[in-house]
UniProtKB/TrEMBL annotation:
Its main location: cytoplasm. GO terms for biological process: histidyl-tRNA aminoacylation. GO terms for cellular component: cytoplasm. Pfam families: HGTP_anticodon, tRNA-synt_His. It is found in: Cytoplasm. Belongs to the class-II aminoacyl-tRNA synthetase family. It comes from Maricaulis virginensis. Residues 1-21 are annotated as: Disordered. The gene is hisS. Keywords: Aminoacyl-tRNA synthetase, ATP-binding, Cytoplasm, Ligase, Nucleotide-binding, Protein biosynthesis. The keyword Protein biosynthesis applies. This is Histidine--tRNA ligase. It catalyses: tRNA(His) + L-histidine + ATP = L-histidyl-tRNA(His) + AMP + diphosphate + H(+). Homodimer.
Amino acid sequence: MSKQKPFRPKARRPRGFEDRTGSTLRVERHLVECASRVYDDWGFEPLMTPAFEYADALGKFLPDEERPNEGVFAMEDDDGQWMALRYDHTAPLARFVAENFQDLNKPYRRYQAGDVWRNEKPGPGRFRQFVQCDADTVGSSNPASDAEMIALAAEVMREVGLKDGDYVIRVNDRRVLDGVLESIGASDPDRRMRVLRAADKLDRLGRDGVAALLGEGRKDESGDFTEGAKLDTAGIDTVLNFLDATGGSREAVIARLEPLVGASETGKAGLAALSEIHAVLGAIGVDETRAAFDPSIVRGLGYYTGPVFEAELLAQATYEDGKPIQFGSVGGGGRYDDLVARFTGQAVPATGFSFGVSRFAAALSALGLTGEAAEKPLVIVVASEKDRSADYLQMAAELRGAGFRAEAFVGGGNMGKQMKYADRRGAVAAVIVGSEEREQGLVTIKDLKLGARLAADISDNRQWREEQPAQQTVARDAWIAAVKEVSGRDRAQG
């Protein structure tokens, strides 16, 4: 009788999810740390809500309400209530404020960073789990709080190392478009939402794609059909003219929008808010190279009620083949005055901004803005003698005390395998103490980066190579200084 084969599951990553590893995670951590410093300095308090919320706290305001699962990963609790992984940090914040309303100082200013999950169709660079970093002010209806959010986002851009001109915060007010829709008789809720979602795709689909979504609808490359807003030709032209009213000074944009809203009081309120935001931004030193008015920014989420904003990277980087990398938007936000009221029945004004950490960090990596302290130099202590592990671990501890990332090799294999391991880890140096070195009180330091450069460019001047050897042996009391010299040389070579 043959033995039954044991079940062995196939090692496979779930579709739409990614494994994030060392360097990626370090850049993400650097970004979150930079943003957190800014938020702390501006008086915001940290908050961490749970990964799960009850589904009814999220679903109504998701962008794809027509989907059966409403865009969330949900499960039924043992008490029969449906819970869902949080879709963003904003809806959980609204629940938290509603639950603790009497105990919170208002305005309540908080920031939060963590994973969010969206049950949406995955694609290139579009994952179902990613990290967001949010800042919000709850309890202020003053447009100055929106202006502060815009200035806050711009300050984070500076904090991560971007120069003015490398980014811009694009600003609009949803009520201006609402006013335009009122003027063309297309303000019913369903049509309004379809128009908002269409306008939000302008940068990705272009004018023709948006025009199709404003009309009968559009079929994408996969064959999926999205029903349109069914505006007539005049209505489509009016909305497109609205989206085109960008460029120039903030005052110029307001002037171009005024005739499009006509007599709509809603539209006039949006323009008034933009005027005040402009005044506040000017007063606190955020000029139009850092924050510009752009009517095409409408944001797709249904809970935005007033000013909306997006952070766009303008800095240029290139792929290995020389083609430019288009970064686009790395964050966004706006005013959402109705979200807390779902729980309390009481209107509670709120505004906030969110960075997509993974996307933003990838852009910073491409631009070389990973932060000085994002990753300390790595040094590997080679296990030359199998019975000396304690000594090697002690040396690694000494390196860490001197400010390095360090490890003693604990795997199996000869010297060649260990050096290959060190190269693949990106170590700047390998530390070698064999029996001869130990008996003589010596340590050998191998400069891995220099060794690689010399191997790649054998035309280097012989004298230069002799003056900067890829390997040196030093006294036991001088080995840390020698590693620091190697690391400094590597940094200088860039």
